[in-house]
Structures are given as structure tokens and as C-alpha cells.
Amino acid sequence: MGAVLLLSYVAGADRRAAAGMQTTPVLVATSAIPKGTAVAKVRDMAVLKSLPRTAVAAGTLSSLASVSGQVTTTDIQPGEQVFASNFADRKTLLAPGQVTVPNGMQQISVMLESERVLGGHLSAGSTVGVFISLKDKTQTGYTHLTLQKVLVTAVQGTAPTASPTTDGSPTPSAQPAYTGNVMVTLALMAPDAEKVVYAAEYGTIWLSLEPSSAKEGGTRIVAPGNVYK
Q: How many domains, in total, are found in the chain?
């Protein structure tokens, strides 16, 4: 009986040893991967290694296909295994009020009176039409909806003090209406950024709320000769 038990134990030990020697592929960081790194860049910062199964933690990745388009949510140090939980959509990393700026665009801020910014009712993430008005040498004015569906990345201004409720606490507001001057930051390609800066320096700017469903056709340069046509 003792011999049978011994043989069973030895056989089990052999199986455990064999299992421990079996390997599985896993991605391992070859350099420090900062938080917020895109998957496309992580591909050059990690390598696929074959490690003993006993050394591989649950949830590791052998490919980045399942997290394509995402970014790292934490720093990953060299030598660390790469987990699926290390990745998420970039939007999850943004603080409230922050907006992702599309690649290739720059940000321009302009200071406008609140009536030129929808009465101060504007928030980051909205898209706007940019009306530019200029005067020629004869002081004749011209206005044109120069840019359309421009992304607003930030809005700063002075919000009015909320009126108190019956119990004395301020009335909550989903979106404050900024008063006075409002600083609006826009995401623009370089040629369009030039137009906005020129208008801010030598003319005037007016913004309209222009959602994706707004029609863009029918615009023209409006001047005294055609304003009533």
C-alpha cells in the first residue's frame, strides 16, 4: 500500500513539474510605458516572451489586438507583464470639462463678449460656427461664416452666483451662463488658426452653436449691397 501511495505521489509531482515547465506567450514591457500611451506606440515598447505558466499572472496579453485604439491607464515598468486591465478608452482619462484634441490640430484662445458666445451658454465639446467681420479701407463692413463645426476645447469665464433656494443652498445649474468676457479655446488646423487670429486682431468674431446636424450650405460674404437679398 505504501509503495502505491509513493508511486502516486511521484507521478503527481512529475505532472506538476511538467506543468511548471510548460510555457505560454505573454507581452512584457521592454521600456517604461507612461500612462496615456497609445497602443500603437506600446507595440514598440513591449516584446512577446515565452514564460513558464506558473510565472504568468491572470489577465495578461499575448497580443494587443483586443485593446486596439486604447491607451494605457497606468505606468508600466520595464520587465512587467502587460495586462488587459492596463488599457482603456482615452476619454476615461479626461477630467470633467476636458476634450481630446484631434491629431494635427492646434488650439487657439479668443476673448469674446458673452453675447458673441451664445449669451455665455457654451461648453467644451460643442462645435461652433465662426463668423468673421472685417472692414475695408472705406469702412465698408463684410461678414462671413468663415469656419464651420469647429471643436470647442475649453470655455472660461465668470459664472453668475446661483440664487439661493428656500433652504438657503445655491440653486444647482447643469451649465453656467458665463457673464462678461468669455475665453473660448478652439481646435483648428494651421490655416484656420491664422484666420481666427487675424480676425481677433483686425476685426470681430461671433460664434454660433453648430451641431453635427446643422446644414452648412447657402453661406456667402454679406455686405451692404446684398444684406437684404
A: 2
Residues spanned by the domain of 101: 95-160+174-229
Per-residue pLDDT of 62-87, as tens digits, reads: 999 999 999 999 999 999 999 999 99
Q: What is the pTM of this model?
A: 0.59
Instruction: Say if residue 225 is in the same domain as residue 122.
Output: yes
Q: If you search the block for the grid coordinates 491572470, which residue do you land on?
A: 58
The domain boundary, picked from 46, 73, 92, lies at 92
Which candidate, 107, 135, 131, 106, places its Cα nearest to that of 117?
A: 131
Helix (H, G, I), strand (E, B) or coil at 128: strand
Residue type, 25: P
211: number of CA atoms within 13 Å, CB side? 1
Strands (E), 31-177: 46-52, 71-72, 87-88, 106-113, 127-135, 141-158
* Residue 106, C-alpha cell as written in the block: 492646434
